[in-house]
Structure formats: C-alpha cells, structure tokens
Amino acid sequence: MGSVVPLRPDLVNMEGYHSPQVDVAVRLNTNEAPLPPPQAFLDALAEEVRTTPFHRYPDRRAWDLRRALADLHGVRPEQVFCANGSNEVLQCLLLAVGGPGRTAAVFEPTYRLHSHIAHITGTGVAIGQRHSDFSLDLQEVARVTTEADPQVTFLCSPNNPTGMAEPKETVEAVAEAAPGLVVVDEAYGQFAPWSALSMVSDDRAVAVVRTYSKTWSMAASRLGYLVGPGDLVEALEQVALPYHLDSLKQAAGRIALRFRAEMEARIAGVVEERGRVAAALAELPVETWPSDANFILFRPLRVEGAKVWSELVKRSVLVRDCSAWPGLDGCLRVTIGTPAENRAFLDALTEVLG
Ligand SMILES: *Cc1c(COP(=O)(O)O)cnc(C)c1O
C-alpha cells in the first residue's frame, strides 16, 4: 500500500543502511572501541555537567572544541568543522558541495554511507571499482573522474570494510586527477601509517573527516569533524542547523583530547589483538585481507557467509554481514574486541566452520 504522504519518489526504493542491533553477548559488528573511556574522562565530564548553563543555547560555533582540535592537528580553528558524528559531517558536505545536478564519485567496495548520503541529498553517484585486492585503481579513478566530472570524490583510508590504508602517493595522485573536492574519510585514521591531514591547506581542495566514534571510545556521543580549507568550513557552517552541537557534546569532545596518551595505548592494545585474531583466522578455512584498522574482513571458504553469520548469532556473537554487498560476495567483517570477546568469536567460528 502506498503512503498517505507524498514522499519523494526517489526515497521510496532506497535501501536503508543499518547494522541489525541483535541482542547478543559479543557485539563485534560496528567497529567501536572495545573499552569505555577512562574514568578520569567521565569524572571531568561530570564536573562539566554540573557547571553547564543549561538554560542557554550552546556556543554556536563550538569554538573551544574547534580550537582544541586545531591544536591537536596543527591547523587553524577556522579549518575545523564539527558535527553530530562524521555522518553528519558528510551530510553537510554533500549539502554544501553536492545536491541536484552534481555528482560524488566513490570506489567500491567502500563505506556505503558515502553513496547513501549522496542519494539522500539528491547528489548523483558515479561508481568506480577497486582492484580485486581492494586497492585503489588509479586508472579507474581517472576514468570515473573524467567521465563524471564529480564535485566530490570520496576516499576512505583505512577503507571500511576492506581494511587497508591508501598509500600517500595514491591519495596525492587522486587529488591531482579529481576535478573537485577530495574527501578522505579517516574514521580509522589513528591506526594508519600516515594521515592526509598533512595534505590539508586553504588553497587545496582536500578535506579529511574524522570521528570520535571509534578510537576515542565515544560512539555514544555522536561527534565527528572535518579538517579542510577555510572557505569550505564556512560553507559547512552555513548548511548546518543553528546550535546543532549541544554543550555537553562540545565539552566531551574537548575533554577527551586531554586523554590522548590513554587513547594511543588502547590503539596499541587493539593492534596487538588484531595480530592475534589474524593469526587465528589464518589457521581456519577462510580467506582474509590485511587490515590497518580495528576490524578484519574475511570470507569463509566452505560455508556460505550469510549462513556463518546466522550460526555465529546463534552462539551469541554478532559480526557484520557484508556477504550481499557489491564486490564482497560471501564476506563478513569482524571488529577487534577485548581479548575475551575475540576468543569467544574465534571459538564460535571454529565450531561453525566445523
Ligand atoms: C564508523 C565510520 C564512520 C563513523 O561515523 P560516525 O557518524 O562518526 O559515528 C565514518 N566513516 C567510516 C568509514 C566509518 O567506518
């Protein structure tokens, strides 16, 4: 039955994007940090709550937070834009640079929200394919950017869900080839050997998007940001809703940066566990891909991916089912969790694969 509401016809057939939130003991499906933030962070935030003037609107420009992020990355606060998760950063980007009659280029398999948010904002999507080992194919990048003349070209490094970071030469080459803005989504940037933050300047159409959701242990806060040319940041402030960042979120983001050493220690812990999980997967009948992030993509060889996914759920382990995504036939993606969670996953998987 049709809706009583005259919905946008192009939205009706659009597939939603969500990872099912199944009630299980071991949740390794959305790449969050395995540990909560440090207690000292929570204490400092609680103190901030006590002194927040709740009857007043928050700082509309989130200036203190932007200054703290600018210090962290060695840029100016005018080059930092914050939003409710990096997904809202992407939405603002596409509102400001995309829209009807404009195009965003993506290279699959990659983060599906890039094309999803493009569709929602009425932006056309030009799709290129990666090499079969999931590295970026620069000839394909040249083909797509020449044919589609995109205003926005999305890269994701390390790439979700495949795991590898792009080498600097590759991102430099894309920035040369692409006619418009190149956006490097670095949601897992703290795991990568280099950052495209080093490429950001006011006279270059390159922007980097980061999030507090993964390495900062703050997925519940919904905070992400962009570092890019000052005039882009100004345009993003125009399309964002007034006062879109509440005072608590701004404080949480600012206070978290005092705990950088703790965050880095956690990353080292995740990398160590990732090595253990990768070594264990190498002993099982699965194909795996190398990872520069906090997750591993793998493909069971003898049992169908979707079947393995549901058998894992029966054993109270939730991973991401990518088996029906374009270019990822039969693949699953597992987040690196605590040592106990990883052991539970590996035990369950060993049992399922018989
Ligand atoms: C998880 C993830 C994000 C995070 O989105 P938030 O809205 O900040 O939680 C962004 N990009 C990629 C590639 C991701 O994997």
Describe the structure.
It is a single chain. This protein folds into 2 domains: 26-37 and 261-353, Aspartate Aminotransferase, domain 1; 56-258, Aspartate Aminotransferase, domain 2 (3-Layer(aba) Sandwich), CATH 3.40.640. Helix content is 39%, strand content 16%. It contains 12 helices and 13 strands. The strands form 3 sheets. It has a 7-stranded mixed β-sheet with strand order 2-8-7-6-5-3-4, with helices on both faces. The chain is globular and about 55 Å long. The protein starts with 8 loop residues before the first helix and ends with a helix. The model has no long low-confidence stretch (mean pLDDT 96). The protein binds pyridoxal-5'-phosphate. Residues 31, 85-87, 111, 156, 160, 185, 187, 211, 213-214, 224 line the site of pyridoxal-5'-phosphate.
Helix content class: 25-40%
Percentage of residues in DSSP E strands: 15-25%
First-residue to last-residue Cα separation: 45 Å
Structural class: alpha/beta
- Name the strands of the widest sheet in spatial order: 2-8-7-6-5-3-4
Task: Indicate the overall shape.
Answer: globular
Secondary-structure element sequence?
Answer: HEHHEHEHEHEHEEEHHHEEHEEEH
Q: Give unreliable regions as ranges.
A: none
Q: How does CATH name the architecture of the largest domain?
A: 3-Layer(aba) Sandwich
* Rg (CA only): 21 Å
Structural domains: how many: 2
